[in-house]
Amino acid sequence: MRSKLLFAASTIALAWAGQAAAEPANGWYMGLEGGGNWVSENDATFSTSLPTSGPARIEFDTGWTGIATAGYAFRGNWRVEAEAGYRHNDVDAINGIANSAGGELNTTSLMGNVLYDIPLTDRMTVSLGAGAGAVHTQFDDGVIDQDEDTAFAYQGIAGLSYAVSPRTDLTMNYRYLRSDALEFQGRHAGHTDFYDTDDVQNHTVTIGLKFDLYPDQETVVASTAPMVDAPTPPPPQTAPKQFLVFFGFNRSDLTVEAQGVVADAAAAAKQFGSARIMVVAHADTVGSQQYNQRLSERRSSTVRKALVSQGIEANKIEASGRGETELLVQTADNVKEPQNRRANIELQ
Length: 348
Prior knowledge:
Elements: H1 2-20, E1 25-39, E2 42-48, E3 52-60, E4 63-74, E5 78-95, E6 103-119, E7 124-140, E8 146-165, E9 168-179, E10 183-188, E11 191-196, E12 200-212, E13 242-246, H2 256-272, E14 277-281, H3 289-309, E15 317-321, E16 342-347
Parallel strand pairs: 14-15
Antiparallel strand pairs: 1-4, 1-12, 2-3, 2-11, 3-5, 4-5, 5-6, 6-7, 7-8, 8-9, 9-12, 10-11, 13-16, 14-16
């Protein structure tokens, strides 16, 4: 019991620490998941008020689960969330009990989770976390005993997500959910049956979708020559020299707005003639310096390919990445800043 209380206390402390260092926030999200659930064999004790008693090893079939989550993602890759789940497993056998015909176990869980996200690529992220809460379990031994009980529970979480769009992730999660021992009673004419279980262990694997409820604030800017009062006669039109393309967090693909900026840059290069085009891309401070260097190089390569698709000769474009070394907005390490996730297109 002491280890379980320490686990719950550490989970709450992690949540508090994540919030204390989380200003400003990245936003709300929700998720829906479904999959399989496996319950470990349980060494229970069966007894009656007659009295008789003895071991009753309960074995379970593979079951199913549905899980819903709602949470808040903070800067620094921390998330806190509430989780509601439902698990159903048939009882395969209760060894040691005469006339046992199986039955079922239905578990409803309410958990508070703390998770940390580790970006692997532009689109793929690994998540590790822990949670604590309660489970309400209904048990039917398949004969005449039916009862329910509520207990403290805690869990460990490991997940993998893939961004299928700027605001939607495809997720796969594994949860190890463990609850305190449960007690079920079956009252009959003249006596009462008792099942006292060990801690109940669930292994849950799910696939689902996670939705960002609000998009990150992204800025797309094309810088043009300064506006001046038009003299008479008007001066010759001058070419814009600088174009800025901004990217989503941990992304190197172009948004619709960014594609428009690249098209404007290509049109200006064709109209006014550019002997050389420099593309320099950057990253914010989330992740290691080596990872952000590679991310910025992927971003510059994406812009270069987009310019070529607009009819610009590839040998006129020089693309490079600067990682997190030249921040447009100065921030501390491990801070998401949309304006630092950019690529500069310079016409020369």
